[in-house]
Specification:
9 strands; 15 helices; globular; 3 domains; about 40% helix; four-stranded mixed beta sheet; Hypothetical protein af1432; about 400 residues; five-stranded antiparallel beta sheet; alpha+beta; about 10% strand
Length: about 400
């Protein structure tokens, strides 16, 4: 169980896990990791930071906590000291956390399926249902950030539209958390991500589900979906302008070549910039009738190549930092000629994640077994195994998701 505590910046100590600050938009590369050095407080103060929100993964005793309502509270100094002393140096997700995230992803897909189906039938969006499931996603992201982002690897060929909407919401929330956004902002961002493509429900199904390339005329109709989504949602009371603009402008590009309004980077709303990255990443890593999904590492390279052209440069860097050089589920070739699947990243050594080795040295299938690539020979200091390159699992008839799930379930 995790709790979030609000503390004055002066009380921030090395080892505390910073979730966010009271002011967003400040460059800080250590969210979700132990606060490294007290000297950083001077930089934060100069940028107008007064309070830090700190995560603690151990449920404190009742006597330590103030008996007031609310998710974020101010705690006594005695409790703050325990956070600094007991904060983990590198926390990896537990099997239970991964399973909980997978279950939540499935639940979110069911809710989204109903929401988008209702939109297709002309019914108004059930904003209460959206807020409820997005709130659960945000809670899971804050409680288990390491497990949360990895559920975006779950794909569904037959229900792409619904699964894609959930994954965009998940990835957008993860980016927002990395930026230090408030819980309220994360809920709005997740809401926008979940319904970013609701306008497609107003596009003729013959165009939406066409297996081949769209004609120029059909593409012009498809390009209308952000504005259709905006018009549909603004009829629902209580949906903020921030959410509406994210839906309308998530296909704008930093260089002004996007649609519907040709906005440039400085003009595109922040939520729209975030959702744009999540949207494209999940789309290009998904299998479609007319599109072969890219392996995650190649997709990240492509996203990076579009930095400053299609996407905001700073947000791309944050996104790649979240996903890791080798995202979970990537198939790789080791220097031992074994095939392996990326299971968990190492924050300090991103090139040496935890893996599942799934073949012998002749690349023949073998029972999956866990291996930590940071392990080294004590005498020489040389690593026992290293990654040579990422591979396309389809070339080896390997279902990486299935093997990971089998390992998780034991």
């Amino acid at each position: 169980m995790s709790v979030t505590v609000k503390i004055p910046l002066s009380e921030l100590q090395p080892g505390m896990i910073v979730v966010r600050f009271d002011k967003s938009g400040v460059t800080y590369p250590y969210y979700g990791r132990p606060f490294p050095d007290k000297k950083l407080c001077q930089y934060l103060e100069r940028n107008g930071i007064e309070y830090a929100f700190v995560r603690h993964d151990r449920a404190p005793s009742r006597g330590d906590l103030p008996q007031t309502e609310g998710a974020e509270k101010e705690y006594p100094r005695k409790y703050l000291k325990s956070i600094a002393e007991e904060a983990p140096t590198d926390r990896l997700p537990t099997i239970n956390e991964i399973q909980a995230s997978v279950t939540l992803h499935s639940k979110a897909k069911e809710v989204t399926t109903q929401l988008l189906t209702d939109a297709r039938l002309g019914k108004m969006v059930d904003s209460t249902a959206v807020k409820t499931i997005v709130s659960e996603l945000v809670e899971q992201c804050i409680a288990s950030p390491e497990a949360f982002v990895n559920i975006s690897r779950l794909k569904d060929y037959d229900q792409y539209t619904f699964t894609h909407s959930v994954n965009v919401s998940v990835l957008s929330i993860a980016i927002g958390r990395r930026l230090g956004s408030s819980v309220q902002e994360l809920n709005s961002l997740g809401f926008a991500g979940l319904l970013h493509d609701v306008g497609k429900m107003k596009v003729p199904e013959g165009i939406l589900n066409k297996p081949g390339k769209l004609t120029d005329a059909e593409f012009e109709i498809m390009k209308g979906h952000p504005s259709l989504g905006y018009d549909y949602l603004r009829e629902e009371r209580g949906i903020s302008q921030e959410i509406l603009f994210a839906v309308k402008y998530h296909h704008e590009k930093a260089d002004g070549s996007g649609y519907p309004s040709g906005l440039t980077d400085k003009e595109i709303p922040r939520f729209a910039k975030i959702i744009a990255i999540a949207d494209v990443y999940d789309a290009i890593t998904s299998e479609r009738v007319y599109h072969k999904g890219m392996v995650p590492s190649d997709a990240l390279k492509l996203i990076f190549s579009w930095s400053g052209k299609h996407f905001n440069e700073s947000l791309v860097k944050f996104f790649i930092n979240i996903m890791g050089i080798y995202p979970v589920g990537t198939l790789v070739l080791l220097d031992t000629n074994e095939l392996a699947i990326i299971l968990e990243p190492h924050k300090d050594e991103p090139m040496r994640p935890n893996i599942l080795i799934v073949s012998n040295t002749n690349m023949e299938p073998a029972p999956p077994h866990f291996f930590d690539l940071t392990k080294r020979n004590v005498a020489s200091g040389a690593p026992y195994k290293s990654i040579i390159s990422s591979l396309d699992p389809r070339d080896f008839s390997i279902d990486t998701n299935r093997l990971i799930e089998q390992y998780i379930k034991g």
